[in-house]
Amino acid sequence: MRRRSFLAASAAALVSRRLLAIAPAAKLDRIGIELYAVRNAMRAAPELTLEALAKIGYTDVELLWSFKNFGQSLTELKASLKATGLKAPSAHMAPETILTEWEQRCAEAKELGMTYLTAPSLPAEANKSIEVVKLWANRFNSAGEVARRFGLWIALHNEPNHEKRIMGQKPMDVFLAETDPKLVRFQLDVGNMLMGGGDPLAFLQQYRNRCWSFHLKNVIADRTKDTELAKGVFDLKSFLAAVPELEKKPCFVEQEGSGDELASAQENFAYLRGLTW
Predict the structure, then answer these.
(1) 25: pLDDT confidence band, cut at 50, 70 and 90?
(2) Which helix (H) or strand (E) holds 269?
(3) The pLDDT value given to residue 18
(4) pLDDT tens track for 233-254
(5) How far is CA 142 from CA 139, 157, 165, 178, in A?
(6) What are phi and psi of 90, to 5 degrees?
(7) By three-state DSSP, how is residue 80 classified?
(8) Are 136 and 175 in contact (CB under 8 A)?
(9) How far is CA 125 from its chain centroid?
(10) Which 3 state secondary structure label does DSSP give 133?
């Protein structure tokens, strides 16, 4: 019996090792870029810039409704996306968008095949008042009800100043406490949180069920500005490995301070494409 048990255990261990050996490493299947990272190129030549991003290998772009899509009409934008094969799962919009013609904006987003409409921040008035943060959280809940009828999600994205406490509370903690997860989601900008003095991994662990899309950004040692992903101090590999169901959550490169936008976009794509965990 002992020999049989030993042989059975040895066989099980061998099978386990073989399964581990052939199990594919996890990686990002889709890599997107926030068009703010290439804003100057987009202003100069939006169609050519989208073509360049597709040739680099990007699969997704996050649109900038707040920049009026760099002069492209809805029809022109649809044509550019179709021609390049790029998908646009998300767009950044001014938060005030939800107060006027919101249903029309949702209809346009659905026509483009989008999933998220994301505000990069709350209005400036929310930087000094928790009550204003709560007011906007309530507005996001209402807008979220409309968005869900279109099969869309409304989301909020964090800026560095969101790490500053107002009356002892962090604005994003209040916003997430006041919003309904069935209606409102969150886009975590890793670099912005770092520059504000926060810890993206700790935030992810606390709000893992609220973070549904990401801006992938890295920072220099003193956290004063961003840099190419491979040159930063934050361990993006470990962060991505910690995201549950990552394959369902859009990830967008966003390096804001590049001296050569398309060169940095290519370098950042190559870095992410080479990551496995």
Answers:
(1) confident
(2) helix 261-274
(3) 62
(4) 999 999 999 999 999 999 999 9
(5) 5, 18, 26, 12
(6) -150, 160
(7) helix
(8) yes
(9) 24
(10) helix
